[in-house]
Amino acid sequence: QTVPEELQNGGGFGYVVAFRPLGTVSWMQTVVASPDAARYVFRNESLPPFSPYEVKVGVYNNKGEGSFSPVTVVYSAEEEPTRAPTAIVARSLSASDVEVSWAPPWDNQHKGRIQGYEVRCWRHDEKEENAKRIRTVGNQTSTKVSNLRANALYHLAVRAYNTAGTGPSSAAVNVTTKKPRESCQTSLCQVFVQIYQAQPFYFIFFFHEALPGVLYRWNRQSSTSVIETNKTSVELSLPFDEDYIIEIKPFSDGGDGSSSEQIRIPKISNAYARGSGSSTSSACTLSALSTIMISLTARSSL
């Protein structure tokens, strides 16, 4: 900062800039003769990037030299990193989020410091120049990319940056976001129950379309059971001497779907069971107990 005129104490006011490479003994000095000057540029083409220098600034006028400022350390300009991060790994966290991690370039492979990393993420049907960009700060080597499209293929690449700019990009890696959480808005599914009179008792659930999987619960237990299926029916073997309330909902990688309305299956009396026999050919079909909406998106693994 320049010295105000009322503190210059005479004519012929100017500055003395002294500097030396950090760790050396001898000072180099230069005179800046203008009292309004606020900068001095030392140019040396052989100077390595981001070299530390000790600097102090003094003052003078026609009566002599004044004192110097405290010594501070400054750095020559740096160059952008010359090598790309390595070991890029991406994984899908949900239908809208992915996580990417990486390893920094080797210390002897770049000039200057690394201030952080820039992650670029673009969908397979988009241009790379329109990629979403996320910057980390410091030594952070992983980050989350959010607000992505569900069940979509994305490419991700990472590069280091500093004050001089960004370095070269890593090779791109691919990741596919998970399927969206199942909802009750994609397909209308009629469910009805057929009872086979056998011991143990059987309930057969028929669906309008094949389901990727079914979560079901009844009033005898608090936990949820899972049936994976790609068929249009589900068979349960349950004792027939109790009431059951069954809820059905689909699931996929994106999460559980919305539950159906509760389906109540009343207790079947022993007399009914004895009178009907065990032959499946004389099965009693109940009327449709409920009409519910269930998402029927199949899982790719099935």
Automatic annotation (TrEMBL):
<dbReference type="GO" id="GO:0007411">
    <property type="term" value="P:axon guidance"/>
</dbReference>
<feature type="domain" description="Fibronectin type-III">
    <location>
        <begin position="84"/>
        <end position="180"/>
    </location>
</feature>
<feature type="domain" description="Fibronectin type-III">
    <location>
        <begin position="1"/>
        <end position="79"/>
    </location>
</feature>
<keyword id="KW-1003">Cell membrane</keyword>
<dbReference type="GO" id="GO:0007420">
    <property type="term" value="P:brain development"/>
</dbReference>
<dbReference type="GO" id="GO:0098632">
    <property type="term" value="F:cell-cell adhesion mediator activity"/>
</dbReference>
<keyword id="KW-0732">Signal</keyword>
<dbReference type="InterPro" id="IPR013783">
    <property type="entry name" value="Ig-like_fold"/>
</dbReference>
<dbReference type="GO" id="GO:0005886">
    <property type="term" value="C:plasma membrane"/>
</dbReference>
<dbReference type="Pfam" id="PF00041">
    <property type="entry name" value="fn3"/>
</dbReference>
<keyword id="KW-1015">Disulfide bond</keyword>
<dbReference type="GO" id="GO:0030424">
    <property type="term" value="C:axon"/>
</dbReference>
<keyword id="KW-0130">Cell adhesion</keyword>
<keyword id="KW-0677">Repeat</keyword>
<keyword id="KW-0325">Glycoprotein</keyword>
<protein>
    <submittedName>
        <fullName>CNTN4 protein</fullName>
    </submittedName>
</protein>
<dbReference type="InterPro" id="IPR036116">
    <property type="entry name" value="FN3_sf"/>
</dbReference>
<dbReference type="InterPro" id="IPR003961">
    <property type="entry name" value="FN3_dom"/>
</dbReference>
<keyword id="KW-0449">Lipoprotein</keyword>
<keyword id="KW-0472">Membrane</keyword>
